[in-house]
Amino acid sequence: QFTPSSFLRIGQLSNVDLNEDIHELETEVPRQRPNEIPHNEKLLSLKYESLDYDNSENQLFLEEERRINHAAFRTVEIKRWVICAMIGILTGLVACFIDIVVENLAGLKYRVVKDNIDKFTAKGGLSFSLLLWATLNASVVMVGSLIVAFIEPVAAGSGIPQIKCYLNGVKIPHVVRLKTLVIKVCGVILSVVGGLAVGKEGPMIHSGSVIAAGISQGRSTSLKRDFKIFEYFRRDTEKRDFVSAGAAAGVSAAFGAPVGGVLFSLEEGASFWNQFLTWRIFFASMISTFTLNSVLSVYHGNAWDLSSPGLINFGRFDSEKMGYTIQEIPIFIFMGVVGGILGALFNALNYWLTMFRIRYIHRPCLQVVEAMLVAAVTATVGFVMIYCSRDCQPIQGSSVAYPLQLFCADGEYNSMATAFFNTPEKSVVNLFHDPPGSYNPMTLGMFTLMYFFLACWTYGLTVSAGVFIPSLLIGAAWGRLFGISLSYLTKGSIWADPGKYALMGAAAQLGGIVRMTLSLTVIMMEATGNVTYGFPIMLVLMTAKIVGDYFVEGLYDMHIQLQSVPFLHWEAPVTSHSLTAREVMSTPVTCLRRIERVGTVVDILSDTSSNHNGFPVVESNPDTTQVAGLRGLILRSQLIVLLKHKVFVERANLSVVQRRLKLKDFRDAYPRFPPIQSIHVSQDERECMIDLSEFMNPSPYTVPQEASLPRVFKLFRALGLRHLVVVDNRNEVVGMVTRKDLARYRLGKEGLEELSLAQT
């Protein structure tokens, strides 16, 4: 069903002027919007392209590499370190900006609402306060949702699934643009200030990645500025390495966990990894957390005291008070099981919700309305819970930012309000560190229940927001509840400090939702500043992952699957040895001859039914009867640059003063190569010949058609390929393996299942 909006979208994407055609189409197509978009998770979308991690080693590339001497390689290496330092500094500064703005705006909002509540508690009419709170929330979230829905939809959510895909080698449109960064930062500030059940930690990872992609290219396509620096890095290989450094710097700024950041990039992201890269990424993360630390310390007025390494600070856990004994290990493992089950429930609910959203709430205006509804409901739920709670605690000796008195005696405050009437980060720290007895079990139980559903409803809204903090908060609440009930059961024996159980509950809940193991253990250890808890946290996370995986996969993997992205996991499906390359590959293959007519090339590139990106080049000897053998591989982007510069054999023979194409011409066109429609080729030029021999990659990777699927998969995944040519024993091209052919096979409940491909 083609709707005008989809035509408009096509028009915006290509640089050609399609406006005249659009108007004709609009008159023909009746204006109808589908109410339901059919969506099937058993599909793979064909709209995603692969990134080319493998350099095309054509003659130009080899000549340039041979020209570069040792000293020049050294400068390239120094440039890499400089870029990593800049990534760290800028990511740290963006994190500071988010933190300071959120703190001030949220502080202002809570002060206004608190004064209002105090005023109306005395003289009655608290419904006005509720209205004020809900309206403030909804209006702030409305702005945050509007910019995301109408300007840059990619900025929705936490951005971690998108970055995961990018590092896996899938090109998701607009994901590392400057515009996305601006919308992301503004959106996350607005959604946290708007009181949604979200955190500002997840989006930091996306922001770091955008910063990295921007700096390493030395130019901005959104601003139309080219700074002529770092031109050597204008290719997917280098860009992807820097993006993984940016993601690590983002984690490190969010949690004050540089090692955790490196491990996050390693565990969740990059498919190709080497030691030098690890060291550079670690450097970027360290710089990022240090920048954040120094700027925030200056902002808080104690310039020499570096006490805030990350956006969230769990505070110090002292080993003396908070040690654990051997008999608590089974208790921790049990908490891991609970976390895994709750996490699986969260993911299953969110799955159905997301399916519903994809089907029915696909228009931007509806998405904004839904976001406002969630904001208002969140405020209402919070208000009602605070209003109904009779849990009063003495004010002296407690560190509550906005103590609400409501119906408590003078000198007391409502303890439900510390959980709801605060930014989620502060609430987490309170749950970890408030002394035993600060919370009524009833309060904690109700809070966990409500917040669980609110957070589940909020994730996947069209606002930019992370799921880290809400899951920590849910976990901390039920963990603390667990600790309190333990000390009831054991008649108040000393070892049940609720703060310790709050930490374990938080780890279990977060592990159960996102299923990260290694990096999450290290992040939790670094954020609490205590190595003693390393072992229990690891046990809890392992249990949560094993239990959760039994039911449903992790939240990020689920969202990647729902968007039908051709994502390649570390290994081929276990039962796939029976398949060979012959069954997996795409056929027939469009081949080009080594010296080819320009008209043929243009026709092949313009053919929309087969939107191929790589073409095997075969020997061009038409006189012999045998099929020509494989000579090389050439990419669509290279052919387009050749046509644009009109590199034809005839023009070279005419001795027209024409400079030879250099690698720089290909780099300047990267990353947005012009579409073939925008390149004008006259009738006479169509008859010319084009010689591909110095531009094609003469040594592409090939596999024999008998190779098994796991073998093909391993080669493809480890080298980060985009095209893998399948040949027979006479070296003739029989097929081509691309990412979609491998991502089609997935292990389902009944064994190996094959997904179908779809254009949407």
Automatic annotation (TrEMBL):
It holds the Pfam family Voltage_CLC. It is a multi-pass membrane protein. One of its GO terms (molecular function) is chloride channel activity. The chain crosses the membrane at residues 81-102, 130-151, 181-199, 242-265, 277-299, 329-353, 442-461, 467-489, 501-525, 531-552. InterPro entries: CBS_dom, CBS_dom_sf, CIC-7, Cl-channel/antiporter, Cl-channel_core, ClC. Its main location: membrane. SUPFAM superfamilies: CBS-domain pair, Clc chloride channel. It is found in: Membrane. Keywords: CBS domain, Chloride, Ion transport, Membrane, Repeat, Transmembrane, Transmembrane helix, Transport. Residues 696-754 form the CBS domain. It comes from the Eukaryota. GO terms for cellular component: lysosomal membrane. Belongs to the chloride channel (TC 2.A.49) family. This is Chloride channel protein. It comes from Sterrhoptilus dennistouni.
